[in-house]
Amino acid sequence: MNRDLLRDLYAAVCAALLVLTAVLVGAAIQHRDGSLRVGWPPLLASWDPHVGPGTPAAVVVAAAVVAYGPTLAARLPWRPLLLAVWGTGMAWTWSLALVDGWHRGVAEQLTTRNEYLPAVGRFHDIPAALRDFTRHILIDSPDNWGAHVAGHPPGATLTFVLLDRIGLGGGGWAGTWCITAGTTAAVAVLVAVRTLADESLARRAAPFLVLAPAAVWVGTSADGYFAAVAAWAVALLALAVRGVRPGLNGFCSGLLFGLTVYLSYGLTLMVVVAGAVVWAGSSRRRPLLFALAGFVVVPAVFTALGFEWWEGYRILVTRYYQGAGGVRPYGYWVWANLACTVLIVGPATVAGVRRAVPRRHPAPPNRGDRRLGLLVTAALLALLVADLSGMSKAETERIWLPFAVWLLPACAFLTGARGWLVGQAVLALLVNHLLLTGW
């Protein structure tokens, strides 16, 4: 066994020990005083071994990706490969969601009192609802919003309002939207990696983007959809700074970045990933001017309609500490959140990040490796800032999906892809079949 592989295994074992520690310490704290406010620390889940309609499909998809994924990723033409990644990613995500059955696994996920759909009926007059939005954020305010509506800018809720307006209302369509949109994030990441780094790196990362344990939470949570919007913003920015239709791609990237920060306050940290793209891509200013022009569109529209982002965030901070955020202990979650991250990215990604993060090399890495390493490091930095902020205590298995998808391409640096893919698949299958997750 070579030294690099041994170090990869050490990293994976250390990550597993972190998860085990978070489980044991979390169970003790939860048993003592219930302050963690989750059923199966560090995840928002409950112990519930089960199988379901999606179980056979999940096993078949996992086996197929392990057996054929690396070979097909290397041989397929580029555009068919992107379609294959999206299609197989949807099959993997749908099968995992359907392990819990259609109703419990998909149709009812976004309909609970803390989710978005119960608020759809209050947006008959959208401008009026936006003007009044901040008045209902605090818990003690009249007709206060549910936790997820209050905890996000109104762009998140408006997505489901607009789906309802075009006849796609209800939990089934909402879940279908989140899975369909959320699984495109893998395609966006591949486009960005190929554009900034190297096509061979993107191809080696492709099976890992398909078989990510994160799929457990992409199906079905709105954060999977948020991850896709942010991922496409980054991918289009990468194309723009590398000179591919810089005006159009730059403007569309800015537009999506603007939408991203109106889907989730925390996704302002995607600026770190965007900065890495600009650093790695080009010194040209023209794409950045188009991106800035696109970015201001969404804030201008929301502000004109009466919602002020900064005021919403200021009130949200108070609401956060009125609820579970004010009870959950920072001293546990500041490191247990990282255990959640291990569970969504898997052991292969931990080993890949070990190789990707800049360090002293016996020989200088090539330019593509350096650029991919920079992208992965930026995502890791954004995630760590979110962690230290204290505004992400628990539930990061879904909240950090937009950052986690940018850690996954680090798997391109690994050797023995099929063995690592087995580890990724086994983790996802165990989590989904042993636990009933909150999403």
State the assembly state of the protein chains: single chain
Main β-sheet, in a few words? 2 strands, antiparallel
The topology string of helices and strands comes to: HEHHHHHHHHHHHHHHHHHHHHHE
Spatial extent as radius of gyration: 21 Å
- Strand percentage lies at under 5%
Uncertain segments of ≥5 residues (pLDDT<50)?
Answer: none
Could you walk me through the main structural features you see in this protein, from its secondary elements to its overall organization?
The protein has 22 helices and 2 strands. The chain is mostly helical. The protein has a two-stranded antiparallel ribbon with strand order 1-2. Helix 2 (55-75) runs antiparallel to helix 22 (417-434) and helix 18 packs antiparallel against helix 19 (367-389).
List the topology elements.
Layout: H1 3-33, E1 45-47, H2 55-75, H3 78-97, H4 102-107, H5 126-131, H6 147-150, H7 154-165, H8 171-182, H9 185-196, H10 199-210, H11 215-218, H12 222-241, H13 246-261, H14 270-281, H15 286-295, H16 297-304, H17 309-322, H18 330-356, H19 367-389, H20 396-399, H21 401-404, H22 417-434, E2 435-437
Antiparallel strand pairs: 1-2
Features:
single chain; 439 residues; mainly alpha; two-stranded antiparallel sheet; 22 helices; 1% strand
Quick take:
By secondary structure, the protein is mainly alpha-helical. It contains 22 helices and two strands. It starts with a helix and ends with a strand.
